[in-house]
Design brief:
Elements: E1 3-9, E2 16-22, E3 27-34, H1 35-40, H2 51-74, H3 81-90, H4 95-107, H5 113-127, H6 132-141, H7 146-153, H8 158-172, H9 181-194, H10 199-213, H11 219-234, H12 240-253, H13 258-268
Antiparallel strand pairs: 1-2, 2-3
Length: about 270
Amino acid sequence: MPVLSKISTQKKNNDRYNIFLDHGQGEEYAFSVDEAVLVKFHLRKGLELTEQQIEEILYEEQIRKGYQYAINYLSYRMRSTKEMIDYLKSKELESNNITIIIDRLLKEKYLDDGEFAKAFVRSRINLTMKGPGVIRRELIEKGMSEKEINEALDLYSYEEQLEKAALLLQKKYPKQLKTSRADQDRKMYTLLQSKGFTNDVVQEVLREMKEENEDDCNEEWQAITYQGEKALKKYRSYNGWEQKQKVKQFLYRRGFSFELIDKFIEEHVTD
């Protein structure tokens, strides 16, 4: 039966101890333990240990080490249960031990997926320009249930979504047009959908922006003038009818109406 022949404190961590055993052929390093494990099993020099006792010590040590990993991981921010499981797996802990650690963290309220989801949504609302669709996908990746996701997204009010979507468009697309209204509307619609805003929110924001811009009669004309001048420079080597066709095609591809294109051609392109 091996005898505990030496206990030494680790140089870099005074709360951990190296255990040396003598199996009758000289002293050898066996394993290291936390101070709590040392106390729990009354480990001391000269103590005889059975193989079963050693297994129990190592089992307790892995549980405590894994739990400490978990607490340290939580010290930076809240974690979902899935995030914690994935992290403990990366530490090469056994599945059964991970289950025990997770159960303890849940009982102690260190893990709470419902609260995590709500905190996650609040953070996304305050710190990002993301809509509920993108946030939903992120919560799914974090391992949240449909119920937890829906309850958390209830925090993201319709009014906040409208405000966020409008602010995003104001930053991305200044009021002064540099392309056609139709082309810009398409781009804004695509942008808001890619950010996870619902169709209802997108339509409402675009409608409100359109109403705000109705008083500016020159906006579309300024945009076609800007684009038309670019087209004239691009096709300056062409003359007459051929130049007109090139410019028309250029402006049509950018969403301007035939009526507005013809007006620009009439005023800016010579025969």
